Amino acid sequence: MALQEHPRRLTGIRFPASSTGTAERAAADGTATHNEATSIALARTAAVFRILTAFTFLWAFFDKAFGWGYATGSGKGWVDGGSPTMGFLSGVSAGPMESTFHAWAGDAWADWAFMLGLLGVGVALVSGVALRPSKPLAPLTPLPPPAVSVC
Fold first, then answer.
1. 106, 90 in Cβ contact below 8 A?
2. How many CA atoms lie less than 13 Å away from 73 in the CB half-sphere?
């Protein structure tokens, strides 16, 4: 019995070939179609929105950590001995979890979890974590219909 050689097959998830470069090159050459230009504009708008959202999370982190005076008063930051969760969790006044949230307010583990969550989401958004895994879902996102010109 002879062994047959089979071509090596790659295991794991296979992503379709990326066509990102062609649309950007066409836009630079001036030969971009309406759909390509719309796609580029949509991608840039989404990137700006992502960076602005990241800025919101990072600003909240630094304001809570150092008490820059926006939502957290000066001298009440986390580094000054304040608790980032005390005001929010102790302010819960209704619901079945009210007593639980009041018990968690000001606990060190809750402060650390809250602050690491703010920092983690902000850094992930700025750095673009998980943009590649979402690439195969791009065809599923709704795009505006192309403009029809009547001659």
1. yes
2. 4
Residue 20 lies in a domain: no
Cα–Cα distance for residue pair 66/69, rounded to 1 Å: 9
Cα 95 from chain centre: 30
Q: What is the pLDDT of residues 49-101, one digit of tens each?
A: 999 999 999 999 999 999 988 888 888 899 999 999 998 899 989 999 999 99
62/84 Cα distance (integer angstroms) = 11
Please write the tens of the pLDDT for every residue from 28-48: 565 557 677 788 888 889 889
Query: What is the model's pTM?
Result: 0.63
Q: Considering the domain boundaries, does residue 101 fall inside one?
A: yes
- Please answer whether residues 39 and 51 qualify as being in contact, where contact means their C-beta atoms are separated by less than 8 angstroms: no
Domain count, the chain: 1
Range of the domain at 85: 51-130
- Alpha-carbon gap, residue 40 to 99, rounded angstroms: 50
Angstrom distance (rounded) from CA 135 to CA 105: 40
Taking a C-beta distance cutoff of 8 angstroms, is the pair 41, 49 a contact?
A: no
Residues in the chain: 151
Half-sphere exposure of 63 (CA within 13 A, CB side): 13
| Token digits of residue 139 | 């065809």
